[in-house]
Amino acid sequence: MYEGVASHRIIAKTDRFVVIPTLGQIFEGSLLILPTAHVETCAALDDGARAEMLGLVDNMVTRCAVWGSPIVFEHGATSAMGGGCGLHHAHLHVVPLPKRTRPELMFPEASATAKDLAEAWRALSGSNHYLLIGHSDGVRLRNLDIHPGTFQSQFFRRRIAEHFSLDRPWDWRSYKGIEPAVLKVLAESVPDAV
User: Closest Cα partner for 160 from 72, 61, 77, 58?
Assistant: First the structure.
């Protein structure tokens, strides 16, 4: 879709990860962090990759702060379990919210908390299906292997749209054309190695 408009959508990369602007910018500056090798969930990353990703997350949270108050979330699901957004490749969202919002307001259904992403992913190691959301004040999580429930595709995008009473679609598939917000994020971001 962006061919001819941008040479690529990568705004940052490390040895094992890339960062791209999210299609369906629910808020301007929304990013996705993805491993370059196929791994189905962030909790399934090995220790070295996890450490690298945590450093990249910190960098992207700082970078996103120019657009708002960053929150991170993941709907981790393996192909064996289904669920998630239908994309069984690990991806962590970094979304700058218009105002700082406590994770418990976004996810009161969480069954556990963690002090940070590292602790959350350790707790979810071996899980085939989970949800997590948080920021520097902590992470709320729910292992859906242990506590089944109905959490549809793009759960957090929908929840954020409802919480902020947005008048634009929460479903990234609804964004059919080139998004000015994606172009703006690309224009303001010089690709770098972190």
Answer: 72
First to last CA, the chain: 27
Do 74 and 44 form a contact (C-beta atoms < 8 A)?
no
Nearest partner of 54 among 126, 108, 134, 129, judged by Cα: 134
**180: helix, strand or coil:** helix
Residue among 120, 74, 101, 86 at smallest CA distance from 160: 101
Q: Supply the pTM of this predicted model.
A: 0.88
Q: Which residue has the tokens 């969930």?
A: 41
Residue whose C-alpha is closest to residue 113's, from 123, 99, 126: 123
User: What's the CA gap between 193 and 11, in Å, rounded?
Assistant: 9
pLDDT (tens digit, 9 = 90+) per residue, 13-41? 999 999 999 988 989 999 999 999 999 99
The answer to whether residues 67 and 6 touch, using CB atoms and an 8 Å cutoff, is no
Distance separating alpha carbons of residues 19 and 15, to the nearest angstrom = 12
Decide: helix, strand or coil at residue 108: coil
